[in-house]
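Sequence in, structure out.
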Amino acid sequence: MRSVVRLLTGVVAGALALGVVVAPPASAADEIVIWSDAAHASAIRDLLPDGYEGTPVTVVEKDPATVRADLATVGARQAPDLLWGDLAWTGELASADLLAPITLKKDVRAQFRANVLAGSVVEGKQYGLPVQISNLALITNTALVPQQPRTFAELSDLALKLSKRKKKINVPFALPQGEGTSPWTTYPLFSGLGGYLFARKADGSLDVGSIGLSSPALRANAAQIDTWNSSGLISAKLTAEAAKAAFAEGRSPFWLAGPEALQDLLALKFAYRIGAMPPMRAGLAPAPLLTIHGFMVTPFAEKHGVSEQVGSLVGSFLARQKSQQRLAAASGQFPANLKAAEVVDTGGGRIRAIGNAGAAGVPMPNVPQAGVLWGPYATAWSESTAGAKAIRAAKAFRAAQRAAEAALAGGDVPTQ
């Protein structure tokens, strides 16, 4: 399609030589090129079979593992105008001038949770349109726990009592940890005690100079992690597979799981409840991390002469309920659009229940500096929940904070 521009240039030049003024026809606008992973490419094509506002749309399938590197090196003619991907990339790509900010009108912004929109804010500007969300939720065996605990203290007491009364229950709380522990699985407990990764500025962007691995609130509540460890409620040895098996076999009353566990949930032979983690401390939300995928606009849209069409496509068509339902369903995820979220029926309502459990969630950090935090965090949590050999949580997380701050001060900023 971009050869059309060269043809038009020749026509206009010839007309001018004859003294005739020729206005380029409306169809002179180039095609809109969208890079997407394979899972969503088909859904995008189905939504835009005839292009958008008279402009053809071409969807190019790209490997998510290489798309950022490809975007940095692609030639302008082959570059995308619109990019599907993890909105945690926005900080890295925007700082490299590979993204353009987007404008979402007030009525459009109202269709999304504020915390979800915040996941793609960089220096006060919106760089992503959220489409789907993934988070963890608390799954409860209702045969073992008929009435849901109102607080995490109640949950803990009940789980430990069940494990003492019933020999079969040998995992009080199926919290996936083990090797490769990350904030994804344990963050609800960490945030519920006042910990955080980065603080957020008044303009909505993350403050990489304010790390909360050992925040004042966490230090005040860190002894709770020591209690969970000494009581046997949680263990650094429990892997994701072991946690899933314990719940599925009725050996644990509680399990943390996300939308990727849908088939496992459908296969269960007993009744269960899906909901949010109950509070650990008054005024502190035990927030899960949110992985948010959606669309990002590149600066090439303006260079290709389609910035107006792309802006409308992102700010209107792709933000609407039906579009978000279709795109989120392509990978069995929870739609970001609130109206779409109300009616999503994937997994007989199970995906909706998991997504609603993340209402107070915290977006995965969209800055490359976040890569510095994962190692220290994992080490601190593992060391403080290692059973008899555990280090006090307050000490472990102080060390994690110092390690992360030192890495950032030394310029160690890995790619997420």
